[in-house]
Amino acid sequence: MLLGIAGMVGSGKTTLARALASRFGLQLALESVDQENPWLEPFYSSAESMRTYALHLQLHFLATRFASMRRMRGLGGSWVLDRTWYEDAEVFAAGMHEQGLLSDEEWQLYRRLYAELLFAPAARPPRLLIYLGAPVETILARIAERGRPKERDTDRAYWEQLHARYAQWIAAFRHCSVLRIDVREYDLYVDPSGAAEGIAARVRQRLEKELPQTELWPPAAQTPGVAAPM
Fold first, then answer.
1. Cα–Cα distance between 228 and 3 in angstroms, integer?
2. Which of 4, 72, 190, 196 is buried most, with the most CB atoms less than 10 Å from its CB?
3. What band does 102 get if pLDDT is binned at 50, 70 and 90?
4. pLDDT tens for residues 139-192?
5. pLDDT per residue over 202-220, tens digit each?
6. Of residues 34, 82, 88, 153, which has the active-site annotation?
7. What pLDDT does residue 227 have?
8. Alpha-carbon span 42 to 196, nearest angstrom
9. What is the CA radius of gyration of the chain?
């Protein structure tokens, strides 16, 4: 079984993923910064380079994501996943096309490849997608207070556009069942234990018969499961 967690930067995905892995005895797959991506530096070197290398960058992300999913599926067992492969393509790559960084022809090629990859065994949909949402002002406030320096320095317009794309994406999402969480009701930063307990109860209601019977409650101190590079 796979639980997916989706949402913008600042919504608390990683905190929730760790908490649910601990409470339900799931293996944990955290998203990690790709240190071996050869396209990041060329992409960000200039505005013209962004258009030149956008397809290279997105194809690298896509290939890396599906390779990680294949390794994770091969290990077997039940997992909780911090960010999904759907967001890579349907939010971020789509956004690059909307911004003109991917041409129509490049976007069509990317979409063809992505559509084929969705038929791969590694891309079986999660049993449940937990979507962490909030108004854009809430997200911006959390980024300003708790975000990384690069995130805090990012222009507000970028976050507003990304927030709009996420809202459009989740409204049309049909790959699997979705549990929507308003992060204003569960503050995963101020009260991570209490917030995670409330969200875990809602997950338990949806998946009572499918969760591992070795649920850890209260949360265990040891590192949960096996972390896969994402």
1. 14
2. 4
3. very high
4. 999 888 877 787 888 889 989 999 999 999 999 999 999 999 998 888 777 777
5. 998 888 766 665 444 444 4
6. 82
7. 42
8. 40
9. 18
Q: Which two tokens stand for residue 115?
A: 């559509």
Q: Is 153 known to be catalytic?
A: no
Q: What is the DSSP string of 154-204?
A: S-HHHHHHHHHHHHHHHHH--SS-EEEEETTTS-TTTSHHHHHHHHHHHHH
pLDDT at 225 over 70: no
Tokens of 177: 């069942």
Residues 6+ apart with CB under 8 A from 218: none
What integer best gives the mean pLDDT of the chain? 86
Alpha-carbon separation of residue 145 from 87, 131, 135, 152, 178 (angstroms): 24, 22, 16, 8, 28
Residue 196: what residue type? Answer: A
pLDDT value, residue 229: 37
**Rounded to 5 degrees, what are φ and ψ at 75?**
-70, -25
